[in-house]
Write a structure and sequence with these properties.
The protein is an all-alpha fold. Helices cover 42% and strands 0% of the residues. The radius of gyration is 24 Å and the shape is elongated. It starts with 18 loop residues before the first helix and ends in an 18-residue tail after the last helix.
């Protein structure tokens, strides 16, 4: 190998964080997504991946981030309660007016052919 070229350390899949670095990551996550520029308070794997990249200059795959978090005791969470900001009237209006239109745009499922021409076509 010629001078100045780095040796490949394999694919960018799992971020290799030391215990100290992971503790720093947890401190960053504890600040919340808004502290890192996101409007809502939801951590996603993609956002955690972005924080890892910004903070530690490491690249990783989403699944590598998931494995890192699970290995360190984190788990997927779903909110236990509805957001206070939720507008139930807007949701009801959407369900009544928009959803039926979205549902009806698809053709009903019926038996058909996978070819472009039907057997009975001339």
């Amino acid at each position: 190998m010629s001078p100045g070229h780095a040796v490949s350390q394999g694919p960018a899949s799992r971020p290799r964080l030391s215990e100290r670095q992971f503790a720093q990551l947890e401190a960053q996550l504890a600040k919340g997504p808004a502290a890192h520029g996101w409007e809502d308070q939801r951590w996603t794997l993609a956002r955690v991946k972005t924080v890892i990249g910004r903070r530690f200059h490491l690249t990783s795959a989403i699944q590598g981030v998931r494995k890192l978090l699970v290995r360190n005791g984190w788990s997927c969470q779903v909110p236990a309660r509805r957001a206070m900001e939720r507008d139930d009237e807007a949701v009801a209006g959407w369900v009544k007016e928009v959803w039926p239109c979205a549902e009806n745009w698809r053709r009903p499922v019926e038996p058909g052919w996978f070819s472009r021409t039907r057997p009975d076509s001339p």
